[in-house]
Amino acid sequence: MPPTGLEPARMNRKKGDKGFESPRPYKLTHQVVCINNINFQRKSVVGFVELTIFPTVANLNRIKLNSKQCRIYRVRINDLEAAFIYNDPTLEVCHNESKQRNLNYFSNAYAAAVSAVDPDAGNGELCIKVPSELWKHVDELKVLKIHINFSLDQPKGGLHFVVPSVEGSMAERGAHVFSCGYQNSTRFWFPCVDSYSELCTWKLEFTVDAAMVAVSNGDLVETVYTHDMRKKTFHYMLTIPTAASNISLAIGPFEILVDPYMHEVTHFCLPQLLPLLKHTTSYLHEVFEFYEEILTCRYPYSCFKTVFIDEAYVEVAAYASMSIFSTNLLHSAMIIDETPLTRRCLAQSLAQQFFGCFISRMSWSDEWVLKGISGYIYGLWMKKTFGVNEYRHWIKEELDKIVAYELKTGGVLLHPIFGGGKEKDNPASHLHFSIKHPHTLSWEYYTMFQCKAHLVMRLIENRISMEFMLQVFNKLLSLASTASSQKFQSHMWSQMLVSTSGFLKSISNVSGKDIQPLIKQWVDQSGVVKFYGSFAFNRKRNVLELEIKQDYTSPGTQKYVGPLKVTVQELDGSFNHTLQIEENSLKHDIPCHSKSRRNKKKKIPLMNGEEVDMDLSAMDADSPLLWIRIDPDMSVLRKVEFEQADFMWQYQLRYERDVVAQEESILALEKFPTPASRLALTDILEQEQCFYRVRMSACFCLAKIANSMVSTWTGPPAMKSLFTRMFCCKTCPNIVKTNNFMSFQSYFLQKAENGAVVLENQYLLRLVIELYCLPATCLQPLYPLILKMVVRKLDSCSTMPVAMALLRDVHNLCPKEVLTFILDLIKYNDNRKNKFSDNYYRAEMIDALANSVTPAVSVNNEVRTLDNLNPDVRLILEEITRFLNMEKLLPSYRHTITVSCLRAIRVLQKNGHVPSDPALFKSYAEYGHFVDIRIAALEAVVDYTKVDRSYEELQWLLNMIQNDPVPYVRHKILNMLTKNPPFTKNMESPLCNEALVDQLWKLMNSGTSHDWRLRCGAVDLYFTLFGLSRPSCLPLPELGLVLNLKEKKAVLNPTIIPEAIAGNQEAAVNPSSHTQLVGFQNPEDDHLAKEASCNISAHQQGVKRKADTPLGSPLEPGQILEKNEDSSKVKLKIRFSSSQDEEEIDMDTVHDSQAFISHHLNMLERPSTPGLSKYRPASSRSALIPQHSSGSDGTPTTKPQWNMELARKGTGKEQSPLEMSMHPVAAAPLSVFTKESTSSKHSDHHHHHHHEHKKKKKKHKHKHKHKHKHDSKEKDKEPFTFSSPASGRSIRSPSLSD
Amino acid sequence: MADAAATAGAGSSGTRSGSKQSTNPADNYHLARRRTLQVVVSSLLTEAGFESAEKASVETLTEMLQSYISEIGRSAKSYCEHTARTQPTLSDIVVTLVEMGFNVDTLPAYAKRSQRMVITAPPVTNQPVTPKALTAGQNRPHPPHIPSHFPEFPDPHTYIKTPTYREPVSDYQVLREKAASQRRDVERALTRFMAKTGETQSLFKDDVSTFPLIAARPFTIPYLTALLPSELEMQQMEETDSSEQDEQTDTENLPLHINTDDSGAEKENTSVLQQNPSLSGSRNGEENIIDNPYLRPVKKPKIRRKKTSFLLLTSPGLHVPCRADRR
Question: Which end of chain B has the least Cβ crowding within 10 Å, N or C?
Fold first, then answer.
């Protein structure tokens, strides 16, 4: 077992084992979700859930579930009314009074808030008290059925309603609703255990309008009309244990398409789009077959559904047995460019069906395994479908992305281990957010995380071979499917959860190889490797002296030690060498195989066995080296900067067959603007058999080189003659051929037959030949392939002009010739006889026009008018106007042309040809335009905001972030603002003012509580604008009463720790204030609030203790408690008068709520006075339930040295399991506590005064001890403390009367 | 009566006859037209083999004939005006007749039928003398089936054509150039027109007319225009591959049926029960019937349903894998 299994704290994992012990004191086996009313007009949902749970500990008296946004009416357990409390600290992360505006503080508070409701730590927003009548039942570990009635009004997240405002019934209007969200977001639309690790079977029922269809997970058992026949109920059963987070729903007037190849697969789309749906999904069965074949495992669910909806949250979302896609992925047969993209999305979602939905994860830190595997098998699909070149190109692209990101931000950690939650050990201290929870992650980080995960999976494959890799997957899947067919047995179902250690164990079992170093390097550590390579050839020894240096000190880098492959192409052939990279040695001697003998005319063998003739005149006469590549297989996550002579790069470009090598050499050649480079690039551009992406990047490189060589460049502008030759008519070179994208098919076929074309790989070649031999009717299945080739041709056709437009003459203007050429291309573009749409091509032409724009000559602040318009620009504008107007009459697919036009207009504005004005963009950015247009327009507005420093536009954007109906657009605006910020932290800007800080702060603090992704986006923006610390534009904090305390503390200990404490405290404080927002104005809330905050504080305390930090004495829970109580009291008071009428929502019309309150008070109180509470729990408990010791192992409760611990444990019942596992007694105090609370209930309020008294005492004590900052506040509020039980009671009374 | 009418019969069957009498007072005019029509009706009846007819029925038939002819005239006039002309031409009449459900092809044969009766010219014919501007050549004589009192053929120069031949432009470059500029001009004219008639946006504050941009107007359902191919493109698609298209339209209709069935089923549930399976069956014709839960009929509510969830949880056989038929 690899050491990763040793993270003792993370999960209570038994040694060696089957693994998984739930962080919750119960096991969920079955859940019913019934939504019996959906109102599209009001955007509301009414329903109930019923959870069947088995307690796993005796004396379970509270059950915590997740629920957000939902209004809960009533909770019953086994038909008995149960009291419950609802509290969500994430609603408002920091207390609103606070003037703290630093991000460190916020991030800590936010992480704490998320932990406080994290189901993986056994927490939840909804806390249900088990009625006393059932205690006995629970002690026997018998089944409990929790029935919760809830409703949802105008949800802001989780469920998204799309209701177009046109005439007609909802079905006619195409109104629909679907679930969405980032990571586990199911709690937004029904109460559940929103964790990927809590599996259960499901029964889902949705009653919808008769004209609508409800699509959900599992098998549709039946559809039944309601009695009035106006609605129907869809009954779904999901018998495969599934996590709540993988449950989804889509309701709308969908058109239904049963997949013609697989009848158990059903596709849904919005009205009128069926023909598109048919075309789009026609390929899906092949993806199915591919995955099933490589995994040698059937698709685990008995059916599969794809739903295409509008206003999608993400393009692809995979849930158990169904995937939700953006409707914008649909396309007709005429659209070539979208085809491969859509297919990728389909394949991606399907890969996630196996790993992600069917196999779920144990904890957040195991996420990388799932993302890695699904990304990896998706890569295999890519390789098969689009060819090896495309695959390698993709890998390189992903590698470049992750390298760039890590070097920028400082590392992506796949498998974070949180040692006891010490903030000090925060594995990602370089980031401005916590990586402890998926919900606190920046979206960009998460994207990169997924990218890294699949790259690492590929590294593992390199190590253990693909065969073993697939065997491991198969093993995981077959274990899971065996488990899934079992009746409920908790340990069996946990086989369906994947953990890092389990995965690694499978690998070592299957392959027998030790991949520990690899895991340690890439999984347990963040950062990439940065190599600098250079070489010298020692002629005497005939040795290549290679020097490889590493940079492992900059952020985001790490040191690499181990094997590194180097490929040397010599005259005699290509040779691989494996170097051992060690700590100290930088130099490596590599003996050369061939002598320099350039005079002998001989073919040079390449890596792939091919032998080619080369013109060797360019090379160094003394050296036999043609080119050198470091880590050609990309088996290290690295960035290589390698120095070799320009002729070597040119050889590499011309003769190396690997596309990655070609792309690398193109990049390197940018630095060598010589005629030789130009020739090499032109040659590659002309080579039809060369991979199209290489040729595309060659275009751009050529443009750059031409610009650098502007003074010496002779002949026509770069690429023009080439383009003319390739795409223009023979007789009239200025006229482009009429578009007939289909004719490329016959073109390819002819070539294939003649054997003139060496296609990228054998697979393609074979298929093309097959294609040619088949009668026309059989073309259909091979259609995608033809498309693929056509796309390649097309891309090179449209790329060249785009790149050409980047050419500049000596005056740094785009040569007139080029502009005329592009205008001619547009003019003569003729698509009448083409079977395919040319919208992408035309859009690219507009991009080319935009590229040709150079800054206006005279920019001395003169007003831009029509009169002083440059004649070239006039021509460009003419075209843009015409295109944009034509779009209104004959819109193109996805409005690609409008998008390009808007971009081009912004370029003209930016270059000073046209007055800079955001009005046009703002009108296009409005809701109601196609999303692509909106994004393009918003991008222009964002850019305008930056360039013109417009406060008004920034406000407009921020307003849209808050109010736009489409979550994706809101997310995107934040994202664009972050990428292209109006100012950054070190910049003076008139925009940077206090109001903006407050506004953004409010946005991330409370304005985005309904959408994790959005909140994280807001945090990112805040970080970009103001950095981690307090924004400089804010005045120095005035010495106010409340915040002062924190400030003082910060002064005292100017490290990050007080910050952290402050953060946590804040989080602890605020729950009380949130309760108001939630809409459950119930006195119980306050108690829960206290309780929750207490938990946090206790947890915090534990943390502190372990950290052994000398800074400040540990925070005593009592103190916080006190404070909470105070603030909650305040709340109570405030609310008292106004909230009586809201009591109808009251849930606890229950017997013993009085006792409940007192119990909470007790609980809160106990730990605060260690001295006093010492024996009480033990004694009271033992008095009541003498057998308690049998349940726990050591019963150390009676021993004084454990008291402190006990007390803390008691309060920290919810604290993370890792904490518990570190202390063998964990179980005991827990049980002690619960029983104790039982007793306290019976003792009722005899204790009250007593307790209060104690509490007060203790409070003072701590105040002195810690110099806590809340003195003043507490003093202010002290009177309320006394009245606490009373007020609690008095508020309760109306609800009792109900 | 009929006989008398037949013998005295005169007048033309066209609408033009009426217009020629426009100089007479209204009453006179009506009477004359009426009389002519009566004659026509009577002669037709005679031709059909009637020996006598009641006055009322002849009146009715006359009335019908009159309104039929008026309708032809009215409609032809609309067609003519639609194409921006003032004088109806033959094609207008033809289109009108076709539109009225008349088989034009049968007309020549009918006009040349052997047993037809020729009605003599109406008594009141003071033909307006059209000035003969220039006479070139001989006017063509009437063919035998046209009564001689009908107007003469126009002058030959109005219809005689002398075709001339000129080498068509086949130079590729010129053609492409022409096609391109023509398309551009049309596009520009069209967009300018749209811009003139509607709301516009401008890139220059001082000038709104040089580069008028049609104002952006949000759609209620934006994805439809963005994703669906335009009519033009659809047409192209149909032209290029009709076979594929057929298949598509075929299924296109299907869910509509289902949808309407579903909603209609509120009243007649039984019909749906029969209809739906047949629909799903017809889709894949030759194959076995697809068993997809979404194609199954909607069940009627049970009388009493209590605790559905529990019942279903325990009921066996719900998990029916149906993948066997795949591949």
Answer: C
More confident residue, A115 or A14: A115
Q: Look at residues A824, A810, A790, A795 and name the one whose alpha carbon lies nearest to residue A720.
A: A824
The answer to whether the CB of A428 falls within 8 A of the CB of A447 is no
The alpha carbon of residue A130 and the mean position of all alpha carbons in its chain are separated, in whole angstroms, by 37
Check CB contact of B268 with chain A, cutoff 8 Å: no
Measured at the CA of A903, the angle between CA A901 and CA A906, to 5 degrees, comes to 110
b/e A27-58 (16+ beta carbons within 10 angstroms → b) = bbbbbbbbbeebebeebbbbbbbbbbbbbebb
Q: Are A117 and A1095 within 8 A, CB to CB?
A: no
Q: Which residues of B touch A219 (CB under 8 A)?
A: 293, 318-320
Q: What are residue A497's phi and psi, to 5 degrees?
A: -105, 135
- Angle formed by the axes of helices A951-963 and A994-1002, to 10°? 10
Q: Would you state the structure tokens that stand for residue B45, as one six-digit string?
A: 């009846």
SS3 content of chain A, % helix, strand, coil (to 5): 50, 15, 35
Residue B266 Cα, gap to closest chain A Cα (Å): 5
At A490-516, the pLDDT tens digits run 578 888 999 999 999 999 999 999 899
Mean pLDDT across chain A, nearest whole number?
A: 76
Q: Say if residue B142's pLDDT is above 70.
A: yes
Distances in whole angstroms, Cα of residue A512 to Cα of each of A15, A458, A507, A793? 21, 18, 7, 46
Sign of the Cα torsion A1200, A1204, A1207, A1209 reads: negative
ipTM reported for the complex, 2 dp: 0.71
State which amino acid sits at residue A504: L
Residue of A nearest to B196 (CA): A885
pLDDT at A419: 58
**Nearest chain A alpha carbon to B256:** A255
Please say whether the beta carbons of A697 and A663 come within 8 A. yes
Count of Cβ atoms closer than 10 Å to residue A1289 Cβ? 18
| Token pair of A880 as six digits | 């843009």
User: Given CB atoms, is A877 within the 8 Å cutoff of chain B?
Assistant: yes
- Residues of A within 8 A of B211 (CB-CB) are 877-878, 881
Long-range contacts of B185-189 (CB under 8 A, 24+ apart): B187/A882, B187/A886, B188/A882
- Identify which has the larger pLDDT, A96 or A405: A405
Closest-CA distance of chain A to residue B47, Å: 57
Nearest CA in chain B to A889: B191
| Beta-carbon count within 10 A of B227 CB | 27
Lookup: tokens for A102: 């630093």
Q: Return residues 496-525 of A near B (CB < 8 Å).
A: none
Distance CA A1089, CA A125 (A): 10
Placement of tokens 């796949």 in the chain: A414
Q: CB count, 10 Å around CB of B70?
A: 12
Closest-approach residue (CA) in chain B for A909: B203
Got the DSSP string for B252-282?
Answer: HHHHHHHHHHHHHTTT-HHHHHHHHHHHHHH
pTM: 0.72
Check CB contact of A34 with chain B, cutoff 8 Å: yes
Report how far Cα A913 is from the mean position of its chain's Cα atoms. Answer: 40
pLDDT at position B291: 83
d(C-alpha B5, C-alpha B28), whole Å: 18
Please say whether the beta carbons of A84 and A57 come within 8 A.
no
* Interface contact B284, partner A, CB < 8 A: yes
Lowest mean pLDDT among A196-210, A256-270, B207-221: B207-221
